[in-house]
Amino acid sequence: MLLDSINKENDIKNIKREDLPLLAKEIRGFLIKNVSKTGGHLASSLGAVELTMALHLALDLPKDKIVWDVGHQAYAHKILTGRKDRFSQLRTYGGLSGFPKRRESECDAFIAGHASTAISAAVGMAEAEVIKGENNTIVAVVGDGALTGGMAYEAINNASKLKRNLIIILNDNNRSISENVGGMSNYLTDVRAGGTYNDIKQGVVNTLEHIPLVGGSMVKNIKKTKDKIKTLIVPGTFFENLGITYLGPIDGHNIARMRRIITECKKLDHPVIIHVSTKKGKGYKFAEADPGKFHGIAPFDPKTGELLKKNTGPTWTEMFANALESEAERHPEIVAITAAMTDGTGLKGFAQKYPDRFFDVGIAEEHAVTSAAGMACEGLKPFVAIYSTFLQRAFDQILHDVCLQNLPVTFCIDRAGLVGEDGETHQGTFDISYMSTIPNMNVFAPKNGQELEAAVKFAAGFSAPLAIRYPRGAAFMGYEEFNAPVEFGKSEIMYLEKDIAILAVGSMVSIAGQVRERLKEKGLNISLVNVRFIKPVDEEMLKVIAKNHKLIVTMEENVLAGGFGVLALSLINSIRADARVVNFAIPNSFIEQGSRDRQLKECGLDADSLYNKLIDIIGLEQDEKET
Questions:
Q1: If you placed Cys at 215, which of 211, 474, 564, 626 could pair as Cys (CB 3.0 to 4.6 Å)?
Q2: Nearest to 36 by CA among 101, 87, 80, 100
Q3: In the annotation, is 101 catalytic?
């Protein structure tokens, strides 16, 4: 196999030109085989195989740099930089990250995980090279979806000021090249990418400008005429008007042509955008037919494309979505907003039932939040559904535009806590901390699926900012007997005993219950509180707990800094100075990829770890240590 000869960066340059299509086929087969076992972002990487190969043929890595936006399409890049032998551990604990990571390879120029960042990073690298007196090639690869994010346009605006080369590749996997302009576009691209066109153009300008009296005006008139014609026949005039040369669209699956274009663009002394058209999921019929399903997929059967493991019950996301649809039927003022996550946040059904009340704003979290604030000002009841990791991007809008005005916007924070295989770029482990700092914000964490439904119902009639955080995966359905109606600012004391009190937040209630049962087998009396409202903290509950317990334990799936445990600690100490408070939370660090169960164990938040720690704290012998 040709892949056997790819063991480090630049090895692809030893492959014969006529063998490159075969190598592309081998890469696709390799990806399908491995991702079917580990899961991952398959469709995007399949669509970018030839584009990646062309980049590696035209560039000299790691001296030259490729900055991937999000990184969903970077699997072929990892293969071509000597990491194919680690693909069996893709997205596993201690294994290969599913995203570019600088610590993993010198050829990964920048970490990726959030969209619309690549051009900004590339501009920064280019400016740094100017200061250092270096002139290596820097390429930013962005998807068409990334251009729905405002940060990309901020970066493009600043890129236009560069006085050196910068290549931006727009990987458009959503549209094909239009037949009526394809031939002209290809011709213009080839001519303008080469040095001849630019040399002649500059030569004509220089000559005309030296004609006495009329030279300058001739240049201006020619430019005006040229720009008007170009607007009609050349795509990308928007970029051209910013001072960035636009080339394309180009067939992103034509390796030879892509390589030639990139090589020619390296010679330019200003930024250039190369617009390439690719097919998401290319080479695997199931991914081509349903690229959304195979964008980020769990392990599957490569012969059928079907998932190997089905969900045995409703997910947290599904229970939220069903509850919101029910409330929207009763409350016509309810609207739903998301940021390029219609399927991921479960809002596809809402969009179909209430198309006029649903808004997917693209990768624009800041706009999502402020537009929700605008809707709330006009009497609507917005529910903003965004993953925890991406909602971080709209912190200022939450603070300034929603909470400062105390507007009734509900933030439905999906994927709160540890998210598993996507790793540190996607962990939802900071939302309690950043939400709890904001005046007027209220934060709720349900213990089970039914309580999430109750929280949505509560939010529909609530008149202030509210965040509801819930984890990824199958919803916990236990403790139904404790599902009391949601009351603002009130926790739920599930068991009131003595000795030890466990205050558990959201997803940790089910784990705390397991710990409680094991401790009771030791003859201990254990109280268990479902915190529910993280903010405001239920001070009346804390007074009851502090009065009857000398050891109080908090458990939450959030970093320790700024979390519920820290809030509770100060309040408990003010109530009872001799009470001992122990906080169990995620360490103040970034948690790498792995299964969620493995991540909980590494953070000491699984039932076994918590039980053993508490046994140590109270000085009892561990169960059979543990046989």
A1: 211
A2: 87
A3: no
354, two tokens: 């209430």
CA distance 491 to 481: 15
The two three-digit tokens of residue 195, written as one number: 């040095």
Could you tell me where the beta strands, DSSP code E, fall in 573-626? 580-586
Can you say whether residue 346 is alpha, beta or left, with left for phi > 0 and alpha for psi between -120 and 50 degrees? left
Q: Which of 91, 259, 280, 535 is catalytic?
A: 280
Other beta carbons within 10 Å of 195: 10
Sheet of 245-251: strand order equals 65-68, 138-143, 166-172, 271-277, 245-251
Per-residue HEC secondary structure of 270-282 comes to CEEEEEEECCCCC
Residue 312 binned pLDDT confidence (cut-offs 50, 70, 90): confident
Q: What angle do CA 300, 301, 306 make, to 5 degrees?
A: 70
CA distances from 499 to 224, 510, 519, 524, 590 (A): 83, 20, 11, 7, 34
The Cβ of residue 188 has, within 10 Å, a number of other Cβ atoms equal to 19
Contacts of 179 (CB under 8 A, 6+ apart): none
Could you tell me the pTM of the whole model?
0.87
Annotated catalytic residue 393: yes
Q: Is-contact 138 129, C-beta < 8 A? A: yes
Strand partners, 251: 277
**pLDDT tens for each residue of 488-509:** 999 999 999 988 999 999 999 9
- The structure tokens listed for 535 are 């903010």
360-386 pLDDT, tens digit per residue, is 999 999 999 999 999 999 999 999 999
Quickly tell me which residue has 């984890």 as its tokens: 471
Tell me which of 26, 365, 421, 451 is the catalytic residue. Answer: 365
Q: How far apart are CA 445 and CA 455, in angstroms?
A: 9
First CA to last CA distance, the chain: 50
Phi, psi for 358 (deg, rounded to 5): -120, 140
For the chain, how long is the longest CA-to-CA vector? 102
Find residue 335's DSSP bridge partners.
382
Q: Mean pLDDT over residues 125-143, rounded?
A: 95
SS3 576: coil
In whole angstroms, what is the distance from residue 169 CA to residue 166 CA? 10
CA distance 395 to 397: 5
**CA proximity to 440, closest of 412, 470, 469, 400:** 400
Q: Once rounded to an integer, what is the mean pLDDT over residues 468-478?
A: 96
Are 344 and 316 spatial neighbours (Cβ–Cβ below 8 Å)?
A: no
Q: How confident is the model at residue 351 (pLDDT cuts 50, 70, 90)?
A: very high
| Residues 161-182: tens digit of each pLDDT | 999 999 999 999 864 333 333 4
Tokens for 470, please give them.
């819930």
Q: Which of 381, 393, 469, 516 is catalytic?
A: 393
- Is the separation of the CB atoms in 27 and 76 below 8 Å? yes
**Mean pLDDT rounded to a whole number for the chain:** 90
SS3 127: helix
Which one, of 439, 435, 418, lies nearest residue 427 by Cα? 418
